[in-house]
Design goal:
With 256 residues, the protein is of the alpha/beta class. It has seven helices and eleven strands. The strands form two sheets. The protein has a seven-stranded mixed beta sheet with strand order 3-2-1-4-5-11-10, sandwiched between helices. Strands 6-7-8-9 form a four-stranded antiparallel beta sheet, with helices on one face. α5 crosses α7. The radius of gyration is 18 Å and the shape is globular.
Amino acid sequence: MYASFSEVYDELMADVNYTAWADFYRQLMAAYGIREGRVCECACGTGSLTLPLYKRGFHMTGVDLSQEMLFLASQKARSEGIAIPFVRQDMRKLRLHRPMDAVLATCDGVNYLLEDQDVLSFFRAAYEALRPGGGLFFDVSTPWKLRNMLGNRMICEDGEHITYLWQNSFSERTGIVDMHLCIFVKEQDGHYRRIDEEQRQRAHSRETLTALLQQAGFDRVMVFGNGRMEAPRPEEQRWHIAALRRTDPDAWEGRP
């Protein structure tokens, strides 16, 4: 029996190739000289990317605001005999006990930050969480995707186990898309249980994200296309963005 959106999340995301996504993040981090070490994944959800990155040799920590998502992530890790700390934190106030080699925010984590100040708070917190020379790596759904692929649309799917109605409303003034999901889950007795979910994402421009990263202290900011170490195309659905913390060896002096 399903109790919440978190418990149907993995089924709704079943078509996502997390293996390829993890391989690309490994490639992206390697381009910035990070081939091993400690990595914190913010907005980690149910750990679907955290676990494959762990299997690629990184010492992972998962952070999310949803206790339900973290519980499922812990269950996944435990079932595979993997020890990964999953911690409930607001990514805008990220604070870790040890400096990280990399901080990630995957699968639209930054899109859920609706104000520039929220984005800047996350970038500053990530900067402080990194060792000198460490990197921040994240992906966002592009303004083109939120406007044209989601936009003012109704998306429906009737599956064997889950049926959903997904109504979106995009504001040109704010760049925010309001998403209303009505999900029907078929239970063992043949009846359906309804789950309602409300989400909001903001379309951030490349220029704004780059300026906020630089304001937080990052340099070597680069924007790549969806799963490619190449410049984005005009109608790109996802950007991968990388930035480096400046080498300031005294930054962690005296901290735990």
